[in-house]
UniProtKB/TrEMBL annotation:
Residue spans of biased composition, Basic and acidic residues class: 260-270, 387-426
Principal location: Golgi
Gene Ontology terms: cellular component: endoplasmic reticulum; Golgi apparatus
Domain TATA element modulatory factor 1 TATA binding: 579-693
Disordered: annotated segments: 1-78, 166-193, 246-274, 387-431, 478-505
Protein name per Swiss-Prot or TrEMBL: TATA element modulatory factor
Keyword Coiled coil (UniProt): yes
Compartmental location: Golgi apparatus
Ranges in a coiled coil: 79-113, 592-692
Signal sequence bounds: none
Keyword Aminoacyl-tRNA synthetase: no
Entry keywords, A to Z: Coiled coil, Golgi apparatus
Domain of life the protein comes from: Eukaryota
């Protein structure tokens, strides 16, 4: 054994690489795949395309877009530094790859040279000689070295791909977290907008309730309330449908995630069980092989010692028998010359004793030979068992190689699916940024419209107060004038017309504007009531068109509304204008028309805001679906990463098992060959001993 191991040439294995070279060989994936900051600058064309035609909002949006499109010098400097660092890292990566390729080429050339040299040595050596056996072993070592180099190359490629995929998965997780945060921010903004819309609806409701106090505009208020109820019902239905859709989406999402998690858990459990069972089987097989090798070596040593002892004993017995035979020959020669009778009797006795000794020795030899033959058969059985185990180990090795190929195919499939997932992730991020821009524009529009509405309400309230004060002043002046300057027609006009607008107008003013001066209002009302009573007792009531201080003069400068124009153009308008009740209730009708116009405008704004809310809810649902899809894709990526890690660990274990199996096979083959040679030597020695004993 020592001679064989000493004469065996060293296999051309490459020296092991240290940790620094491994770190240099590994590709730098993080720097090459750094995500650039998302460009979310809005161009003026895009802002004008998404924004509704609102002339007051366009300059502010253009200014914000131009301010966002400016690039900061520090950002440009950092961008250039990052580009230079990436270029440097890519150059280092190419150098390391070239170095790896050159080392692998050297390994391949060395292995091929060793294989050729081994083949030449096998061809040149004689059949059955030890040189040929050594050459065949060297050839096997060279082939194993080639296979080792190929496996090492595959392992390097797998490590590079696994590291690249882990970096990409990390980047995608980060981008998904950003997308999720943006989606949550959009949902918060949407909830704020919904709250504001509800507040606007509450304001509209309060305005409608204030308008309901007017008896003359009850039909329009009823229509508006019906429309509002219908719209509120539709809004409630839409909200209920939205809540149900959200519940269904959340339930489907939770169900899908739970099913996916259950599947992956069962799959990981099965893979872990298979891995543990394979490890246990490998450990048991290795332990059994070690025990058998130890037993075989111990039994072989015992047999060798026993055979040496038997050989020494047999040689001693042979020498003793030869010495006795020589002494007997000498005695026989001496006895031939002396007395024949006594000598013959002695010789016969000695021959009998020798025959008995020979019979005992032959019986002992037969027992020893039978025991040796039984041991030889036992060793042959053990050799057959070792051969069977070797076939089993080779079969398991083939199965492990097939599993490795399957894992490589799965890895290639995962690599092929990775660009698609990256593309989908980029599209989702772009969609999220687009939704964010739309939400910002809508927020600006909503703020501007609310500000305009508040300004209009304040302006209307201010105008109403001013005109009301003017009307009070006019009515107070008309009440202070002496009664003698008034004609019966004028006083009748004042009295007949004063009773109609007073109560509705006072009710309208008290319901809409309770914050006005109460004392002044009561004074004006009492004065008007006094005029009314005086006029009614003086002259009988007749319709008249003559007036000097008619309250309708207050509304001559009021711009007509679309409702008032349509009402004036109708055939019924002429009779309404001429009738006493319409002329008397002129301020209330005008106020009701103005308020109804404001209500219609608010209703149109509410409908527009409702449509906008519906559009935002649809966009929110779409973004939620996209986020759910992205989360599912990220779960798949995490599963692929875990599976790759498991496959990498399994690959390392299989490579280690392969290496240890090859070493065990080499040692076992050497031991079997040595045992066979020892058995042949023992058989030859026993045959020689048997021949010598038979001849003697």
């Amino acid at each position: 054994m020592a001679k064989k191991n000493a004469s065996r040439p060293e296999s051309p294995l490459p020296p092991p690489m240290d940790s620094q070279e491994k770190e240099n060989i590994e590709p730098v994936g993080t720097s090459a795949q750094e995500t650039q900051p998302a460009d979310i600058n809005l161009l003026p064309e895009e802002s004008e395309r998404h924004v509704q035609p609102n002339l007051s909002a366009v300059p502010s949006l253009r200014a914000s877009a131009e301010s966002q499109s400016v690039v900061h010098p520090s950002d440009l400097h950092s961008h250039l530094e990052a580009e230079a660092a990436r270029q440097k890292l890519s150059d280092e990566l190419t150098e390391h790859k070239e170095r790896i390729d050159s080392l692998q080429a050297k390994l391949r050339t060395l292995s091929t040279q060793a294989a050729r040299a081994a083949e030449g040595a096998v061809a040149a050596a004689e059949a059955g000689s030890t040189d040929k056996k050594l050459a065949e072993k060297e050839k096997g070592y060279a082939l194993l070295t080639e296979e080792w180099t190929s496996l090492q190359k595959k392992e390097m490629t797998l490590r590079q791909t696994i590291k690249r995929m882990t970096d990409q998965a990390r980047i995608s997780e980060k981008s998904q977290a950003d997308t999720k945060q943006r989606a949550e921010k959009a949902e918060r903004n949407l909830r704020i907008m919904e709250d504001r819309a509800r507040k606007a609806e509450a304001v509209a409701k309060r305005s409608e309730q204030s308008l309901a106090a007017s008896a003359s505009a009850s039909y329009s208020i009823e229509a508006v309330t019906k429309e509002r109820d219908a719209l509120s019902r539709t809004l409630a239905d839409i909200r209920a449908q939205l809540s149900r859709a959200n519940q269904r989406a959340e339930a489907a999402e939770s169900k899908a995630t739970s099913e996916q998690l259950d599947k992956e858990r069962t799959r990981t459990a099965e893979l872990q069980d298979d891995l543990t069972s394979a490890r246990v089987e490998r450990e048991l097989a290795e332990e059994k092989l070690r025990r058998e090798i130890k037993d075989l070596t111990a039994s072989l040593e015992r047999e060798k010692e026993h055979s040496r002892a038997m050989e020494t004993e047999m040689l001693g017995e042979q020498a003793a028998l030869e010495s006795k035979l020589e002494s007997f020959r000498a005695r026989a020669e001496e006895a031939s010359s002396s007395d024949q009778g006594d000598v013959q009797a002695k010789l016969l006795r000695q021959i009998e004793t020798l025959q008995s000794q020979y019979a005992a020795a032959s019986q002992n030899w037969q027992g020893i030979e039978s025991s040796l033959l039984a041991r030889i058969t036992h060793l042959e059985k053990e050799r057959d068992e070792v051969a069977n185990r070797e076939t089993d180990v080779r079969r398991k090795l083939r199965e492990s190689t097939s599993k490795l190929k399957r894992t490589e195919r799965d890895l290639e499939d995962a690599q092929n699916r990775l660009p698609e997932t990256e593309k989908l992730l980029g599209e989702a991020e772009e969609e999220g940024r687009r939704h964010q821009r739309k939400i910002g524009l809508l927020k600006d529009e909503l703020i501007q419209t609310r500000q305009e509405r508040d300004d209009q309400e304040v302006q209307h309230e201010r105008d109403f107060k001013q005109r009301l004060e003017e009307e009070r002043a006019k009515w107070a002046a008309s009440a202070i004038q002496p009664a003698r300057t008034e004609s019966p027609v004028t006083s009748l006009r004042k009295g007949g017309l004063g009773i109609m607008p007073t109560d509705p107008f006072e009710r309208r003013r008290s319901s809409v504007y309770p914050y006005l001066d109460t004392s002044s209002r009561q004074h004006s009302v009492n004065s008007l009531k006094g005029l009314t009573n005086g006029g009614a007792t003086a002259v009988p009531e007749t319709p008249s068109i003559m007036t000097s201080h008619d309250p309708d003069e207050y509304f001559n400068n009021v711009p007509p509304t679309p409702a008032s124009q349509s009402h004036a153009n109708s055939p019924r308008a002429v009779h309404d204008l001429v009738s006493t009740s319409t002329v008397g209730a002129g301020p209330s009708v005008q106020l009701v028309e103005r308020m109804s116009a404001n209500v219609r405008r608010l209703e149109s704004e509410k409908a527009a805001s409702r449509d906008e809310i519906a559009r935002l809810t649809t966009q929110r649902d779409e973004s939620r679906r996209e986020v759910v899809e992205l989360m599912r894709e990220m779960d798949e990526k995490r599963d692929v990463a875990t599976r790759l890690a498991n496959l990498e660990a399994e690959n390392a274990g299989l490579a280690k098992r392969h290496q240890t199996t090859l070493e065990l096979l080499g040692e076992k083959s050497e031991q079997v060959e040595e045992l066979q040679a020892d058995i042949l030597d023992v058989k030859q020695m026993y045959r020689q001993l048997a021949d010598t004993m038979g001849k003697s």
